[in-house]
Amino acid sequence: MTGRPIVVRHPSPTEFGRLSPVANGVRPTVTRRQRLPLVPQVLTVSRPMNGYMSDSTRRQRLHDLDVTVWVGKNGIDPVVDELNDQLGERDFVKAKFLRASRGGTTTEELADELADRVNADVVRTRGHTAVFER
């Protein structure tokens, strides 16, 4: 995601008057309508300077994440290496624990055990899904 330029167009003061909400019931008027030149500004999307994401950004990334690891009837042993590889490549990994894998345990217990094996943290569990971070 870093290094991808995004072009943002900011309105000029004349356009801003047209776009601003009505203040005190009086709408600002523009005496002369003219086509204003588009002045693009290029911004680079990256992490904030301090290295941390805001809570809302983090929550949105966790929500939009696709499940890439499924834990099935063979348990967590077969997926340890795969989860370890994926955590090396990306920040977060979402795993789904299928009914056969849970047996008599809860999703939280399985997620904690899997996180211990790959030296990761469980960011969130919801339902039968867990998100891991290293």
What's the arrangement of secondary structure elements?
Blueprint: E1 5-9, H1 13-19, E2 40-44, H2 55-64, E3 67-71, H3 80-89, E4 92-97, H4 99-102, H5 107-118, E5 121-126, E6 129-133
Parallel strand pairs: 3-4
Antiparallel strand pairs: 1-2, 4-6, 5-6
Describe the structure.
This protein is an alpha+beta fold. The protein has two domains: 5-44, no CATH class; 55-133, YhbY-like (Translation Initiation Factor IF3). The protein has helices at residues 13-19, 55-64, 80-89, 99-102, 107-118, and strands at 5-9, 40-44, 67-71, 92-97, 121-126, 129-133. β3 (67-71), α3 (80-89) and β4 (92-97) form a beta-alpha-beta unit. Residues 41-47 have low confidence and may be disordered.
Please give the largest β-sheet.
Answer: 4 strands, mixed
From the 3D coordinates, which CATH architecture of the largest domain would you assign? 2-Layer Sandwich
CATH superfamily of the largest domain: YhbY-like
Give the SSE order as H and E letters: EHEHEHEHHEE
Helix content, binned percent? 25-40%
Task: Give the tally of structural domains.
Answer: 2
**How many strand units?**
6
Radius of gyration: 24 Å
Overall geometric form? globular
Structural class designation: alpha+beta
Taking all residues together, what is the mean pLDDT? 76
Low-confidence spans: pLDDT under 50, at least 5 residues? 41-47
> Order of strands in the sheet with the most strands?
3-4-6-5
